[in-house]
Design brief:
Layout (H helix, E strand, L loop, with lengths): L2 E5 L5 E5 L4 H9 L7 E5 L5 H13 L2 E5 L2 E5 L7 E2 L1 H4 L9 H8 L1 E5 L12 H9 L3 E5 L2 E5 L7 E3 L5 H12 L4 E5 L5 H12 L3 E3 L5 E5 L7 E4 L4 H13 L3 E5 L7 H9 L3 E4 L5 E5 L8 E3 L11 H9 L4 E5 L9 H7 L3 E5 L2 E5 L8 E3 L3 H13 L3 E5 L2 H4 L5 H7 L3 E5 L4
Helix pairs in contact: 1-2, 1-7, 4-6, 5-6, 6-7, 8-10, 8-12, 10-12
The protein binds ligand EPZ.
Length: 421
């Protein structure tokens, strides 16, 4: 397994361009299952999760061609209804095939995505919503088996604004009979991006981006072209890298509106953020020590859980005591023992992490546990004295494209060490 070696202490300088959003591209590619006609998707990040999604779609009978960041999909002949365990276990987002397969073919058999490093991550809300649309849903031998001659529109009130649950139900409703109204849905920008793509394909959707979405079922969808939105989590990660290294960088190609809550917290820590007039970039300057802050992760537009580990790295070197509360995933503190190895002073009390800032961290050998925890460890390594080696970077490769290269262009001393097998 590859490792990333970082020599800390260099303030970052320069410009970095943000790529397409992994968590928008995944549902958009899955939505290709909803009908024939060529779909051309641009600005798709070249990361492992998208390669896995492309493999799953090919297995189901979709014709997938990839050229750099462009993915062309044609799904006239979807011939399988099954998303198998050996694929789903490598990527939970495979669950996004459930809604489209069921509504297009009348049947779907998708392996239950297991839990993962950050929590149990049930899918009960996905299944409850589909059942309310008339699907017969059984779960046995580790598989979800759903059937419906044709789904029927329904009013569905979600108990929790699940992101992929909202996406699955929107896609299922696109071809259902009648109108579906979804209430208390997730409002993440990636959902609005999916709805924009579905609308281009002929879906009838109102309320994207709000907590109530109404979908009027149609008989079929046609092909369309779409460019995936920028990745707000990648953007937030680089903004925090500029802050933690006391540098001066410009993060380009991001939608600053998607990071309102994050920017407010980073500015509270004493970082100077200057947004571009056109709202698609931000300059990050930090010359004074960071100040402690309180953060609570919440569904969008609250502070995103996907930037929690990165924020904890910042808090670890801030002056004073910060408190970080994780309300989305019960197990998302696996990066804490690794930050301890770097000298961070963090105490966990249930969903709260109490972080006493130290003047500096020290480089160490640390292990990544999930995609965003590994990003937090890289940020800590950029600020630490000495060398940090992050192992199991395959976690990083799931969601960050050429991360060490991008940090390198900003002046960081980062290199990927290919494991000699
Ligand atoms: C999406 O996961 C993202 N993944 C995650 O990003 C992100 O952290 C998460 O949303 C929260 O923002 C993709 O979009 C592919 P949820 P998802 O369903 O949809 C509970 C990354 O690093 N819940 O919104 O799986 C669940 O247990 C990944 O890019 C139920 O109880 O998250 C959790 O506590 C990590 N029942 C909370 O809701 C359900 O049926 C949020 O889960 C569904 C969810």
């Amino acid at each position: 397994m590859d490792q990333i070696k970082i020599i800390g202490g260099s303030p970052l300088h320069g410009v970095v361009e943000i790529g397409g959003a992994k968590n928008a591209a995944l549902p958009i590619l899955a939505a290709s299952l909803l009908g024939g006609g060529e779909c051309i998707i641009d600005h798709v990040p070249q990361v492992r999760d998208l390669i896995t999604m492309a493999k799953l779609l090919e297995l189901l009978g979709v014709n997938v061609q990839t050229e750099g960041g462009r993915v062309m999909l044609e799904a006239s002949h979807v011939q399988s209804i099954e998303a198998p365990y050996d694929l789903v276990k490598t990527m939970r987002a495979s669950i996004l095939a459930l809604g489209p397969l069921l509504t297009r073919l009348g049947e779907a058999k998708v392996s239950l995505p297991g839990g993962c490093a950050i929590g149990t991550r049930p899918v009960n809300l996905h299944l409850k919503g589909l059942a309310m649309m008339g699907a017969e849903v059984q779960v046995d031998h580790g598989y979800i088996h759903a059937k419906a001659r044709r789904l029927k529109g329904a009013r569905i009130d979600l108990d929790f604004p699940t992101v992929t649950g909202t996406e699955n139900l929107i896609m299922a409703a696109c071809l259902a009979e009648g109108t579906t109204s979804l209430h208390h849905v997730a409002r993440e920008p990636e959902i609005a991006d999916l709805c924009a793509f579905l609308t281009k394909r002929g879906a009838k959707i109102l309320g994207a981006g709000t907590d109530t979405i109404t979908i009027e079922g149609v008989s079929e969808l046609h092909g369309a072209k779409h460019e995936v939105m920028p990745d707000r989590v990648e953007a937030g990660t680089f903004v925090m890298a500029g802050a933690i290294t006391g540098g001066d960088i410009t993060v380009k190609g991001c939608v600053t509106d998607h990071l309102g809550n994050v920017f407010t917290k980073i500015q509270e820590m004493g970082v100077e953020l200057t947004e571009n007039s056109d709202g698609n970039g931000v300059r990050v300057r930090c010359s004074a020590p960071l100040k402690a802050v309180e953060v609570k992760t919440l569904p969008y537009p609250g502070f995103p859980t996907d930037l929690q580990a990165q924020m904890m790295a910042l808090m670890s070197v801030a002056e004073g005591t910060s408190i970080l509360t994780e309300t989305i995933f019960e197990g998302r503190f696996l990066h804490v023992p690794e930050l301890h190895r770097m000298g961070a002073s963090i105490e966990i009390d249930g969903p709260h992490a109490v972080v006493k800032g130290t003047a500096s961290l020290t480089g160490a050998e640390v292990m990544a546990s999930d995609l965003r925890a590994s990003a937090g460890l890289v940020l800590a390594g950029l600020a630490a004295e000495g060398e940090t080696t992050v192992s199991r970077v395959y976690h990083l490769d799931r969601g960050y494209e050429r991360l060490e290269e991008k940090f390198g262009t900003l002046g960081a001393q980062v290199q990927r060490v290919r494991e000699v097998v």
